[in-house]
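Write out the 3D structure for:
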Amino acid sequence: MMLAAAVPSLTNAGLSSPMQIILMMTALTVLPAVIMSITPFLRIAVVLHFLRQALGTQTTPSNQVLIGLSLFLAMLIMQPVATDIYRNAWQPVEKGELTWEQGLDAGSKPLHNFLIKFTREKDVKLFLEISHQTAPRSPADLGLTVLIPAYILSELKAGFQIGAVLYLPFLIIDVVVASVTLSIGMVQLPPVMVSAPFKILLFVLVDGWNLVVGSLMKSFA
């Protein structure tokens, strides 16, 4: 998103066509990493993969389905941020009202405000110490070079916390089924094969997908 603000200004900057193509290709190469790292995609993808492991369904839903769902949910959450970047950075740069440097600065502010909401202070302090930077006076003065990796760590922690909570009820079912099968002498029958239908049935009865996706979306409200 930060890269997008610079695209319409390439022609105005007087760059040659080969250089414009190189910069565009570079931006497209970095774009997947940007989407996966500094959007809600990270937390959603981690939680959905934990959920699939807890259900014990192996490859159902497939990785493509989980990634696609994570991507569209992330796009839905980031829509207001993208709209602000488009209005405050893309349009002014396209009209020649701002230079590409000013457009990047204006476009980074909505993203900065979004990231700071979900970043832990502890993670920010860690990267400030690593980069040997002094603590800013206010969160608004925090640079994206520190904020982005701190946000990634915070999202990983949040995703693993939610995933662990999702795992618990299914783990209880596994333990109960394993105890029952061993007590009646069904040693050769893997407990996972017996518990899988019960876990899927429980998940369907409580409308699990609606609950999980709804809780994830509300966590970014």
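Residues 1-14 have pLDDT under 50 and may be disordered.
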